[in-house]
Design a protein that fits this description.
This protein is α+β, with helices and mostly antiparallel strands. Among the domains are: 10-162 and 169-195, no CATH class; 360-443, no CATH class. 47% of the residues lie in helices and 10% in strands. It has helices spanning 3-24, 37-78, 84-99, 103-119, 121-129, 134-144, 149-160, 178-192, 197-206, 228-245, 254-267, 303-306, 324-333, 360-372, 411-419, 476-485, and strands spanning 209-214, 220-225, 297-302, 314-316, 320-322, 338-343, 350-353, 388-391, 406-409, 423-424, 435-436, 442-443. The strands form four sheets. It has a five-stranded mixed β-sheet, sandwiched between helices. Helix 2 packs antiparallel against helix 3, helix 2 (37-78) crosses helix 5 (121-129) and helix 6 runs parallel beside helix 8 (178-192).
Length: 490
């Protein structure tokens, strides 16, 4: 069949596209629903979008396979005497011209296609089936880079092996936005990377920098690559300050307010002068940033990592894995805005959060932040300390104030919940709610990928299982653990 089969297949695809375009325009031969044609058309268009997503993923897999097969056959035709760099440039140039992209983009596409088709079989199968998209596949390519074959296979299996058990209420990876999947994949990679995060962080600190890039319309970008704790604290501080400035007499948006206060700080045009470390609560604040505004950050630390017995990463809320040395510094030297969160040595669940108040409202808010991690609305990445607690079942309708009836929502999605037909589904003490759209489509919740923390080698049992503590008198290490778990408020 050869070329004739390809031509025929694409003719049928174009015919199908013409039919679907007519249906999406409301010009199909039959209405989607006789009783309510307008509602039927709206629902039908959502069906078309869902189907197009699956087909686009299949086409992405087809493009990747075709590009790699072309590269392999072109190399075979050229023969072994042809210089490899020159051949790669020629292949990328051909693909770039055909797809109307530049040579650099064509080379990146070809490299990613090679990795997906030849090194990530589960990702390629999922792409063909339409259960993940091409951006999800690119995340897998990027996060497996630098791992050995066994490590890459383990990361891929953790997220895409259909035989691995997962919570029934958890959204599949392909139903999360690719950037949310990137966060989950990066967390797993940091925990299982063969090289210590401390060594990799030291390289990153050496590369810290500020960058300037001109943009259109008399604008420019000024950005900084900083240690995660300082960057996250600065971002949260700007957010808190900007939110405090909003009001009926303030015409600027939250985004504009953040940009203006950032400029005030670095140009010294505010009322305060001086500088302070990330998260500082004392009077020596950065220029233009009010000392009344505190940068608040949750730091989740495995107990043995906090004690210095393991090098397991901690988690900085809103960012992801950080070196344990950074977490220890935040806990030991950080201001009160850095909330210490310890996790259970057996299953990785949150165990304790440092607090200065035992009032129920504060404790429940902190427990809610630990359970949800961020705004629970599908695709939202708003961090914990910038969200609002909301009753899933309204108090006036009989809802209680237990954590199973609460969820975190950012201000935007809090308003959306009360102003539209978007409704949350039930939550549990350990799992956030899913959401149901006004059209009746259900979107599952995103769950934490918690793992048991690493145990120090001296505490490993012969079976590899976490050993039980035998309390026949506390050793110095056990005394330190007890202190961390039950430390009095500062």
């Amino acid at each position: 069949m050869g070329k004739a089969a390809v031509v025929k297949a694409f003719e049928e695809i174009r015919a199908a596209l013409a039919l679907l375009n007519a249906e999406a325009s409301g010009c199909g031969s039959e209405p989607f629903a006789d009783a309510d044609p307008l509602a039927g058309l709206a629902d039908g268009c959502l069906d078309i979008l869902a189907g197009a997503r699956v087909v686009e993923a299949g086409f992405a897999a087809l493009k990747a396979r075709a590009a790699v097969t072309y590269a392999d056959t072109a190399q075979a035709i050229a023969g072994p005497a042809t210089p490899v760099p020159g051949m790669e440039m020629a292949v990328a140039a051909e693909i770039g011209a055909l797809l109307a992209v530049g040579p650099r983009a064509a080379g990146a596409f070809l490299a990613a296609s090679h990795t997906v088709t030849k090194e990530l079989p589960l990702a390629f199968s999922a792409l063909q089936a339409g259960t993940i998209t091409w951006p999800h596949a690119l995340v897998m390519v990027e996060e497996t880079a630098g791992l050995d074959p066994a490590g890459a296979a383990a990361l891929e299996a953790h997220f895409l092996d259909p035989d691995l058990p997962r919570p029934a209420t958890a959204a599949p990876i392909g139903e999360l936005p690719a950037y949310r999947f990137r966060g989950k994949a990066r967390n797993w990679r940091e925990r299982h990377h063969p090289e210590s995060i401390e060594k990799r962080h030291a390289k990153g600190v050496a590369d810290r920098r500020v960058e300037y890039r001109p943009d259109r319309d008399g604008m420019a970008w000024l950005s900084a690559c900083l240690p995660a704790d300082r960057a996250m604290a600065g971002w949260n501080r700007l957010t808190a300050l900007a939110r405090g400035m909003q009001g009926p007499d303030e015409s600027r948006t939250l985004t504009q307010l953040k940009a203006d206060k950032f400029a005030d700080a670095i140009l010294g045009s505010g009322n305060n002068a001086g500088s302070a470390g990330a998260g500082s609560d004392d009077s020596g604040t950065a220029a233009g940033l009010s000392s009344r505004i505190q940068a608040q950050v949750l730091v989740t630390v495995p107990v043995f990592s906090l004690e210095g017995l393991t090098d397991e990463p901690a988690i900085l809320d809103g960012y992801g894995p950080i070196p344990p040395s950074m977490a220890r510094r935040l806990v030991a030297e950080g201001a009160g805005s850095f909330y210490r969160v310890l996790v259970d040595p057996r299953d990785g669940a949150p165990l304790e959060i440092g607090r200065t108040s035992y009032r129920l409202t504060k404790a429940m808010k902190k427990a809610l932040r630990l359970r949800d991690g961020r705004c629970t609305f599908p695709g939202c990445n708003n961090p914990s300390l910038d969200n609002e607690a909301d009753h899933l079942q309204a108090w006036k309708d009989g809802g209680n104030t237990g954590i199973s009836n609460l969820a975190q929502l950012c201000p935007k999605h809090h308003r959306l919940k009360h102003a539209t037909g978007w409704t949350p589904t039930p939550a549990t003490k350990t799992g956030p709610p899913g959401w149901t759209s006004p059209t009746g489509r259900h979107y599952k919740a995103e769950h934490h990928d918690r793992e048991p923390p690493h145990w120090p080698s001296q505490l490993q049992s012969a079976t590899g299982d976490p050993p039980d503590f035998i309390y026949l008198g506390l050793s110095p290490g056990e005394e330190a653990l007890e202190w961390f778990l039950h430390a009095p408020p500062a």
